[in-house]
Specification:
single chain, 3-stranded antiparallel beta sheet, disordered N terminus
Length: 265
């Protein structure tokens, strides 16, 4: 059900103003990337990316909103994202993954079985979420060193129940030079893990079967968010498609190595 915007509480946005993005003009890459990241996660059956809705402020839903105070102009597009309550910015890399970075040997079932610190449901849950987060780094967070700065997770939040959220996805896609975002950090992080959720692996393989995985995700996204269509003429659209498809292929290749190789070099 669509409801009229009642009010905006400025205080909610003061601590993290970048959670509420307002961009004008023909190039609004950040806004588009936030939305695309959300629909990619949903297509893969995941719920680690908070909901994002794009809105044109000329809509009657915004009637009565003080646009001057917000610094908005008529016909601006804005991205509205779910506000996450009771969360912490402290999301630390599990020691078993740090060991994998140092040793060059990925975390697999044998490592999990022989690691005393992985005996609780909480520790296993955290490890599995990190595996998913690393996949997402490889799929659309390529080269974003801020995600794993100092071997800990930035641009993430953890709920009081231990759930990890990926936020600030504005740098996820549509860079001027997508290939420049392939760095040694990304491959290093991907190769620390061979523990992934089975449904995610199934959905990744299914996605890779399409002639262009990127365009399949895009078609899925615009089904729910038609305002994304305005971006299709952007110069970075096709470049991003090529980069995305290459990253997916590389991810699938690593998953297959995890499946069929007992020793990874």
């Amino acid at each position: 059900m669509r409801q009229q915007i009642d009010s905006l509480d400025d205080r909610k946005f003061e601590p993290k103003p970048h959670l509420f993005i307002n961009l004008t003009g023909g190039i609004y890459l950040l806004l588009i990337a936030e939305s695309f990241a959300f629909y990619l996660s949903r297509l893969l059956g995941m719920d680690m990316v908070p909901e994002v809705v794009i809105s044109n402020i000329s809509s009657p839903l915004w009637k009565g909103t003080d646009f001057i105070k917000l610094g908005w102009r008529e016909h601006d597009l804005v991205a509205i994202m779910r506000w996450l309550h009771e969360t912490s910015h402290k999301v630390f890399m599990p020691s078993v993954i740090k060991d994998a970075v140092t040793s060059g040997k990925p975390v697999n079932s044998d490592v999990v079985y022989n690691t005393n610190t992985l005996r609780s449901k909480t520790s296993i849950s955290e490890l599995i979420q990190w595996g998913t987060m690393i996949i997402l780094l490889k799929k659309y967070r390529i080269g974003d060193g801020n995600r794993f700065l100092n071997r800990n997770a930035h641009k993430t939040l953890m709920s009081s129940n231990g759930k990890i959220w990926l936020i600030d996805n504005e740098s996820a896609f549509f860079h001027k030079d997508p290939q420049s975002y392939f760095t040694s950090l990304n491959r290093e992080m991907l190769r620390t893990m061979c523990i992934f959720q089975s449904f995610l692996v199934t959905n990744l393989i299914k996605l890779s079967k399409h002639p262009s995985a990127f365009h399949h995700v895009w078609k899925y996204a615009i089904t729910f968010e038609p305002l994304l269509v305005t971006f299709e003429k952007n110069i970075y659209f096709n470049l991003s498609a090529i980069s995305f498809n290459n990253r997916l292929d590389e991810t699938i290749e690593w998953i297959n190595r995890c499946k069929f190789s007992s020793t990874l070099k």
